[in-house]
Design brief:
Strand order of the largest sheet: 1-7-6-3-4
Largest sheet: 5 strands, mixed
Distance between the termini: 20 Å
Shape: globular
Number of strands: 7
Oligomer: single chain
Radius of gyration: 11 Å
Order of helices and strands: EEHHEEEEE
Number of helices: 2
């Protein structure tokens, strides 16, 4: 599992994909999420604005990601 460090309370799912350089644009993130290609907590998530907080498990293209707060 890869960890993405954030400095805010949460990060939106589409922003996480962009921030982690998993997609090149917000439009690409939107399409992939709405096509059901992203899972949050083991379930397909089609809400691009889903708030991802530390401890949440995001799965994209077979890789798992989580977030943690910057110290």
């Amino acid at each position: 599992m890869k960890t993405i460090t954030i400095s805010t309370e949460f990060i939106k799912l589409q922003d996480l994909l962009k921030f982690a350089n998993l997609v090149e644009s917000g439009g690409e993130a939107k399409e992939l999420i709405q096509d059901g290609q992203v899972q949050v907590g083991g379930a397909v998530c089609t809400m691009r604005g889903k708030k991802i907080r530390p401890g949440d498990d995001v799965c994209f293209e077979g890789e798992h990601y989580t977030v943690s707060y910057a110290d």
